[in-house]
Amino acid sequence: MTTPGTGTGTGSDQPSPESDPRSELGSAPGSGPEHGPGARSAPASGRSLWFSLAVAVGVGLLVGVLTSYAQGLLPEVLAPLANSSGSWSVAAFLLAYPSRRRGFAIATGVLTLFAMVAGYDLASVLRGFSPSLGSSLFWCTTAVVVGPFLGWGAHALRTRSRYSPLAVGAVSGLLVGEGLYGLTVIAATTPAEYWWGSVTVGAALLIWAVVRRFPRFLPALGAAAVAALVSVVFPLVYSVDLSLLFTSPFLF
Fold first, then answer.
1. Which string of DSSP letters, residue by residue, matches 201-240?
2. What's the pLDDT tens digit per position in 237-249?
């Protein structure tokens, strides 16, 4: 007597493993891991990340172009906006913030700053000016040095990691420090209102982050300490015209 389902004998209405085409494939169509519900999510996610990076770089290029054209067009009280390293740093930080992966956020911080330099130089050429090679090299070097920290900091704030107080403190200190630089070193040639605005925005960012993101004492203290340190160091470093290192005749 044959057992049911063996494919021989009477009463067998089920195909045998030998005759079942699924046995040759190992599983039914759509049941393998390559056909699972999340099978296409990884490639799609990768494409989305690269697309977001490309968009951020494009926006950075536009920021650079607008910076060049804004010089001479902005009202006096906003004129420093087109000559401010703080505005570019904040733009790179905000463009890196949406990145879901740390590596892409860091790359966004670097590449968007590069794009701003390229956009600025391109617009300057279109306006009839000759970009300074030394100045461009200086800002490209700045992109390599500062860009990773801006991208990393944006990702830390987005993910609310334990390093987010350091990130917020650094950006806050940068804005406050540039404001202090404007109020002390170049106060005679630039409007004080803009620099007070920079100080206010930097302080407001720190207060917002402490209230909404890390209200506990130690993280708040850490953010305030980093902000204070950066705000003091920034004017000292910025007072030394490091761009002269890239315009020395010995380099070319």
1. HHHHHHHHHHHHT--SHHHHHHHHHHHHHHHHHHHHHHHS
2. 888 877 677 765 5
> Does 63 have pLDDT greater than 60?
yes
CA distance 137 to 120: 13
Q: Give the pTM.
A: 0.77
Q: Which residue is it, tokens 């951020």?
A: 56
Q: What percent of the chain has pLDDT over 70?
A: 80
Q: Where are the alpha helices (DSSP H) in 71-191?
A: 85-96, 102-126, 133-159, 164-184
- Farthest CA pair distance, the chain: 107
209, 165 Cβ separation under 8 angstroms: yes
Say if residue 212 is exposed, middle or buried (CB neighbours under 10 Å; 0-12, 13-18, 19+): exposed
Output phi, psi for 213, to 5 deg.
-110, -45
Nearest to 176 by CA among 216, 135, 226, 114: 226
The two tokens of residue 160 are 């609310």
The CA distance from 82 to 64, in Å, is 9
**Calpha distance 54→105 (Å, rounded):** 12
The ranges assigned to domains in the chain are 48-159, 160-237
pLDDT per residue as tens digits for the range 137-176 = 989 999 999 999 999 999 999 999 999 999 999 999 999 9
CB-based contact 149:109 (threshold 8 Å) = yes
Q: List CB contacts of 77: < 8 A, sequence separation 6 or more.
A: 191, 193, 194
Contact 172, 227 (CB under 8 A): yes
